[in-house]
Design a protein that fits this description.
The protein is mainly α. Helix content is about 65%, strand content about 5%. The protein is built from 19 helices and 8 strands. The chain has helices spanning about 1-20, 40-95, 100-115, 120-130, 135-145, 150-165, 170-180, 185-200, 200-210, 215-225, 230-240, 245-260, 265-275, 280-285, 295-305, 310-325, 325-340, 345-360, 365-375; strands at about 25-30, 35-40, 385, 395, 410-415, 420-425, 430, 445-450. The strands form 3 sheets. Strands 4-3-5 form a 3-stranded antiparallel β-sheet, with no helix packed on it. The chain has a 3-stranded antiparallel β-sheet with strand order 7-6-8, with no helix packed on it. Strands 1-2 form a two-stranded antiparallel sheet. Helix 11 (about 230-240) runs antiparallel to helix 12 (about 245-260) and helix 16 runs parallel beside helix 18.
């Protein structure tokens, strides 16, 4: 209805204008050379209007012809952009699907159509990484570092490559460049902390890491790596304060106190740690200044008195008593430990020495020694330092596992776990074999595990 009304209004206006023009009186005479044109005023006005319209149309045609090349370029550019966007979409789909060949092909096509844009360079690099073509990925990442506003993406990709190939020197340099390109990022801070741990820059790792249960480990490592005794003592003290029962931290602090001449404070720290968590290394430190066997036995009694029922205390007393020739006390402590359920190999080894010392080279002594060695062969494993990540054993505590390279994973393992079905991935125990671990969900990881490892002892029958 509105269109009809608008049409009627427009028609009325046109009729009114035509009627007004027709009512204009007069003649218009135009002479051009020998030609004379004479017409009425309304016709002349109409002719001028038609001429103006014709001129405008002609100018429009000329302008269109002039713009044909530019229009063609614009059309081609828009067509390439649309084709490039479609190629980018196909790259993303191929990357998500893990299709190596199509991802590289479409990435090259997108780069050809859209040029060296940050998006195409990043997709080219990721497609190269997916296909295992690290050289292609590196070339794209390096080109990306020259892109204004997107250089951080290039440095991040190069940093990932350096970390994957464990080129820590290159990784540190790239981390500094990435920090300069985009400072203050949480990801980069975490990455720099990991690099500091891998390269043994423990002081920097402490600065970059926030709340972390492994900070006492980092403090001990920083103290060991610090050449300045005062700073080393400060690092060790922080390790001791944060974890008073962390044996490496206690020993790091006590060792530096002893070196500084504060033997009483060092012994007090070890004594307090023995109350919380007895450990053979603590006993070795406490008894190190003493060389007389009887004096060592007396010092061991004072130390063990703070936690007398602990197996470490009984084993320490048995060892020092045996070294001092106090065979009765040694046997008493061994029997008390066995009565408490301790079945460790070192107990049987001390018992074998005791039998040899008490009975000498007699038939009864030899039989008793053989029995003790048989017990040692079937005994529980001794406590030991072990990585909680890769489960590799180490002779002494270290801040970083020498096998898997992870920091803060070396712990004192003393609990004997019974044989049984266990997941080799998350180490959760299950009552019966299952095709998939109910805890971590991985398939094929349930295996029969036993902590009874060979003792290395051989028993020779008479």
């Amino acid at each position: 209805m509105a269109k009809v009304i608008l049409f009627l209004v427009a028609a009325s206006v046109i009729v009114a204008v035509a009627w007004l023009l027709a009512g204009i009186p007069g003649q218009v005479v135009a002479s051009i050379g020998s030609f004379t044109i004479e017409t009425s005023t309304p016709v002349a006005i109409l002719a001028v209007a038609v001429l103006v319209v014709a001129i405008l149309v002609l100018l429009g045609l000329l302008r269109g012809l002039w713009n044909i090349p530019r229009i063609g370029v614009t059309w081609r550019r828009r067509h390439r952009a649309e084709a490039g966007e479609r190629a980018v979409t196909r790259v993303l789909v191929a990357l998500a699907a893990g299709e190596q060949g199509p991802a590289r092909k479409e990435a090259r096509q997108a780069r050809k159509l859209l040029g060296e844009s940050p998006q195409t360079l990043l997709l080219t690099a990721e497609a190269g990484r997916l296909a295992g073509r690290e050289d292609e990925a590196e070339e794209a990442f390096r080109a990306l570092t020259n892109q204004a506003g997107a250089s951080f993406l290039g440095f991040r990709g190069l940093l990932r490559q350096a970390v994957d190939r464990k080129d820590w020197t290159e990784a540190l340099m790239l981390a500094r460049q990435a920090e300069a390109a985009h400072p203050g990022t949480a990801w980069l801070r975490q990455q720099r902390a990991e690099l500091a741990l891998q390269t043994g820059n423990w002081a920097e790792a402490l600065e970059l890491t926030g709340p972390d249960p492994n900070r006492p480990t980092y403090y001990v490592a920083a103290a060991d790596a610090e050449p300045d005794p005062a700073r080393a003592l400060a690092f060790a003290k922080q390790a001791w304060k944060q974890a008073p029962d962390f044996v490496p931290g206690v020993l790091a602090y006590a060792t530096r106190l002893r070196a500084a001449g504060s033997e009483k404070r060092a012994q007090a720290c070890v004594l307090e740690a023995w109350k919380r968590s007895p450990h053979p290394d603590l006993a070795a430190f406490a008894l190190a200044p003493l060389t007389d066997p009887l004096a060592r036995a007396q010092a061991a009694k004072r130390l063990a008195a703070t936690n007398a029922a602990n197996p470490e205390s009984r084993i320490l007393l048995a060892r020092t008593a045996l070294d001092a020739g106090l065979t009765g006390e040694a046997r008493h402590q061994l029997e008390a430990a066995q009565a408490d359920g301790v079945r460790q190999r070192r107990l049987s080894s001390i018992l074998a020495e005791l039998e040899e010392q008490e009975r000498g080279d007699t038939e009864a002594g030899r039989l008793a020694q053989r029995e003790a060695l048989r017990q040692a062969a079937a005994a529980d494993p001794d406590p030991h330092w072990q990585c909680t990540s890769c489960h590799a054993g180490v002779a002494a505590w270290q801040p970083k596992c020498p096998t898997c390279g992870k920091a803060g994973t070396i712990q004192w393992q003393s609990d004997r776990r019974p044989s049984g079905w266990q997941c080799t991935s998350c180490h959760a125990g299950v009552a019966a074999w299952q095709p998939k671990c109910p805890t971590c969900g991985k398939a094929g990881t349930i295996q029969w595990q036993s902590d009874r490892r060979p003792s290395g002892l051989s028993v020779v029958a008479a």
